Amino acid sequence: MRLTSVNMTTPLFTALSFLAVLALGSCLALLPEEQPYVERAGIQYSARPYTSLLTVPNGEQFGNWTWPEMCPDKFFAVGFMVRVESEQYGLDDTALNGIRLICAKDEDRSFLYTIESHTGFFGDWSDPQYCPRGVLTSFQLRVEPHQGLFGDDTAANNVRFRCSSNPTLAGAGLDYGEYSLWSQDCGDGGICGIETKMEEYQYGLDDSSLNDVRFHCCAKLQQ
C-alpha cells in the first residue's frame, strides 16, 4: 500500500489551517477574564493609625456611630460599592444603606480587601467603581433632611468620591436631598478607613438606615 504525502502548500491545507486558527481564537475569547482575589477585612485592622477624619456637615440625626473598619497597612481605598434600596413608591424608603470601600496596595488590583463598617438591611450592592489611577481622597454625601413626624425619612441617599488622579466617582444611589460641599482632602495619603452612623431596624416604623459616614485618612509617607 502506497502512502501519499500531503502537499503543505495546497489551497485545502491553507484553508484548514486558517479555520483552525479562527477556532482557537474563538475559544480563547470565551475564557473568563482573571478576577482579583477579594477578602473581607472586617475589624482585624482597626488598630491601624490614621492622620485625620473626613466629615461633612449634612449628616442626619438618627442612629449611632458604629465601629470603624480599616484597610490593612500600606493598603488604601481605590474604589467602592454602594448598597441601595430602590424607590418603594409609597412604601417606606431607605435609599442608601451601605458603602463598601475596596482597598489595594500601590497600583496592584489583583489582591483586594473590602471594608464597610455597619450597613443596613435593605437593597442590593452595586457593581464596583474604581479610580483609573491613585486612591480615594475626599467625598460628598447626598442627604435628605428630616421629613417631620409623619414624613418618610431616607437620610443618606448617595455618595461621591474624588480620586487623587482627579476623576470623580458617583454612586448609584437615589436623588432625594442635596449633596454637601466636598470634605477636606487626605493630602499626601488617601482614604484608608470607614465608620458609619446607622439607625437600627425600626420593626415596621419609619426606617432611615444610613444617616452619616466619616472616612479615615492615612499618610503614604508613614508606610
From TrEMBL:
Tree of life domain: Eukaryota
Signal peptide bounds: 1-29
GO cellular component, one term: extracellular space
UniProt keyword annotations, A-Z: Signal
CDD domains: VMO-I
Keyword Phosphoprotein: no
Annotated InterPro entries: VOMI, VOMI_sf
Pfam families: VOMI (PF03762)
SUPFAM superfamilies in the cross-refs: Vitelline membrane outer protein-I (VMO-I) (SSF51092)
Name the UniProt record assigns to this protein: Vitelline membrane outer layer 1 homolog
Lineage: Eukaryota, Metazoa, Chordata, Craniata, Vertebrata
